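Suppose you are handed a protein chain with no further information: no name, no annotation, nothing but its sequence. What can you learn? This example shows the usual starting point.
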Amino acid sequence: MKKLMLAALAAVTAPAIHAQIAQDRPFNEYTWLTAHNAFANTLVPSQTLSLGAQLQRGVRGLMLDIHESNGRVRLCHGGCLGTEPTLADALNNHVLPFMQQVPQAIVTLHLEDYTSRAALAAELTLAPGAASLSFTPEQWTLERWPTPREMADAGQRLVIFTQRRENAGALLTAGGPTHVLHDRAYTSENHWELGRTIFEHDASCTSRWDTPGLSNGSTWGPREWPRLFVMNHFHGAPLGNHSATDNSYDALRSRIDDHCRPAAGRKPNYVAVDFVEAGQAASLVAALNAGVIEFFDEPAGKGERICAVAAGARRTVMLEEYAGDRCPPDRLRSAVVRDVAAGTRIELAEAATHDSARTIITVKHDLDGERVLVHDLRAAQEDEHLKVSSSASGFAKGVLQVAFSAAR
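A reasonable first move is to predict its three-dimensional structure. Written in C-alpha cells, the prediction is:
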C-alpha cells in the first residue's frame, strides 16, 4: 500500500479580513510568546537561542534581568561578573535591528530591574533608537488599548516595563525621552514558578503580588485600560530536556483553561516559558490568537489531546522531522474546534489521490469563547455549531499538512 499523507486543510471565508484582525484588535486581546530570562543562554541557561533568534522564531516578549556592574547596566541573573552583555548591546544588536527588519512587530521588554534611574537612563542613551519607538500611554486618548496596527502607525512599537517604580516614566536620553512603564501599574502576574525543580508541578495560578491580584482590573496609568496578564510558566531551576513537557500544548492549555483563566478572568497576554523552541508554546499562542482545532486519540474528545492546529497559519509539518508537534495522523479520532470564525472549513484528507477518504468540518457561526466537539472524525454530524461530513474510516501514517484558503 502506498504511503499516504494526511492533509488538514482549513479555510476561512475571507483570508484578507482574517489577516487584518491580526493587527486590528486592541493590544490586550492578543497573546505574545515570551522568553523567561531571555538573555540567559550561557552557564545556567534558561534559553539556548540568542535574543535575535528568539525574535525570529516569533517571541515578542523578552524578560531581562538588569544589574549595574562595572560601570554599565548588564544582563545577568543574580551576581554579575562585569563582562556580561549590556542592555544597550541587546537593543542595538538584536531588538532594534529586528524591529527595523519587521516594521509591524510589537516587542515588549519585561525588566527585572536592579538599577538606579540615572544608570538606566545612561544605558538607554547608548541605544538611542529605543527612544522614538517606546510606547507612551500618555499620548493616547483612546478608551481602550490601541491596536498593534495603531501602535505601529504611531511608531510606538517597543513596550518597556520595569519592576522598579522609581525608574518608570520618561527617561531623558540622547535619543530623546524613553518611556518606561511600571509593570504593577499596567499588568498582573501569577507566581513565578511551577516548582523549584522539575519534580514539582504546581499548576495553580495565584498572584505574584498582593496588589494587584490576577482579576481583571484597570491600569493605574493615565488611561483606565484593562490590565495585561503575564502568565509565568517555568521552573525555578531550568532544564532544557524537561521544557518540552512543560511547554507542551496540552500542559499549557490545561493550565490556562483549568487554573489561570478562571483566576484572572481572561486569557494571558504574555505566556512566559523557558527554552521557547521546546514543545508547542508558539502553537499555543497562535491558537489563543486565531482559534484552533484540537485533536484527541479517542472519540468524543476523550483520551489524550495529542496536538492542535491553530487557525490562520499555513505550514507543513513533517512528523518524522518535527516530533515536537506529536500529531500522528493515524491516532486522530475526534476533535474540539474553538474560537474560530463562521464559515471556517477544515478538511482532513489522505492526499495520495483525489478519491482519498476525507472529513470536512464547516463552522456555522463564530465560536467566540466556545468549545465545540466533533464526536468522531469518521462520522457525519450536524448541529447548530458545525456540519461534519466524512468518508473516512481512519487515516494512515504520514505528513500533516495545514493550510488555509477561502471556503467553498
